[in-house]
Write a structure and sequence with these properties.
The protein is mainly α. Helix content is 80%, strand content 0%. The chain has 12 helices and no strands. The termini are close together. This is S-adenosylmethionine uptake transporter.
Length: 279
């Protein structure tokens, strides 16, 4: 079980690095184009993994279920990438931290998972940390980007649903197959919208898009192996560790200095994550 928690934390760290690169790209390229290129390059990486591992042909049930999940991934990625371009990195992550609450909720409702008092307490502590951050952001005097906030919240709901579906499929399908569908499906869906707003990318930026695809694909591969071993509700609070990466990357690459509220909320978030990881 400890290995699953470690994998989840590593996967989240890689995805946080991907988010930072996407935020950098958001100033130069439309959201649909960024999202398409993320999944197009991700498809190349996932396809290479698939070719090496050779998990076999998927069943009809696998194709249908993972295709539905791919639609949720499209909504999640497009919404969150838009939010990254409108909000500070830490604030976008903080708003997205409603996702673990929804993951635990959907895990109980859809997967009939059991949630004990410690898990509920850990979720509440993490949620309190998120609330502290949002309150501090709201009193900073800056203009709020309500469309960015709405996009981040929408991403939280659809991300939670997609992760619960990941938990359901990870016990039936090979991880390589799941992640391949998670990339190729959104790439196909987003091809037309991306073409409509296409801005020719610089050659130097293509390498960054390749890095985005690698980070996203490898991060989700690692997360999928974790969700195959541990209930979704137990892994949910570990999503909060992304705030640590968001604060660090926001400061290093975008000069975003975290407020005292962000640091206090981050402490609560880490406390909640540690509580759920205990045996």
């Amino acid at each position: 079980m400890t290995g699953a928690f470690g994998r989840a934390v590593l996967g989240i760290a890689l995805l946080s690095a991907m988010d930072a690169l996407i935020k950098a790209m958001a100033a130069r390229y439309p959201t649909f184009e960024i999202t398409f290129l993320r999944f197009a390059f991700g498809t190349l990486v996932a396809g290479a993994v698939l070719a090496v591992r050779r998990p076999g042909w998927p069943t009809r049930e696998t194709v249908v279920a993972n295709s539905w999940r791919a639609l949720l991934v499209v909504i999640t990625a497009t919404s969150f990438f838009y939010a990254l371009g409108r909000l500070p990195l830490a604030e976008a992550q903080a708003l997205a931290f409603l996702a673990p609450v929804f993951i635990a909720f959907f895990g109980v409702v859809l997967l009939r998972e059991r949630v004990d008092g410690r898990i509920v307490g850990a979720l509440l502590v993490g949620f309190a940390g998120m609330a502290v951050i949002v309150h501090g952001s709201g009193t900073s005097g800056g203009e709020r980007s309500w469309d960015g906030i709405a996009a981040a919240l929408a991403a939280a709901v659809t991300y939670a649903l997609s992760m619960v579906m990941l938990r359901a499929r990870a016990t039936r399908d090979r991880v390589e197959t799941i992640v391949f569908f998670q990339n190729v499906g959104p790439a196909l869906v987003l091809a037309a919208p991306a073409a409509a707003v296409w801005t020719p990318p610089l050659v130097s930026d293509l390498w960054l898009f390749l890095a985005i695809g690698c980070l996203g694909t490898i991060g989700h591969l690692i997360l999928a192996t974790a969700f195959a071993r541990v209930e979704a509700a137990r892994l949910a609070p570990l999503e909060y560790t992304a705030l640590i990466w968001a604060v660090a990357l926001g400061y290093l690459f975008f000069g975003e200095v975290p407020s005292l509220q962000t640091l206090a909320g981050g402490a609560l978030i880490v406390l909640g994550a540690l509580a759920t990881a205990r045996r």
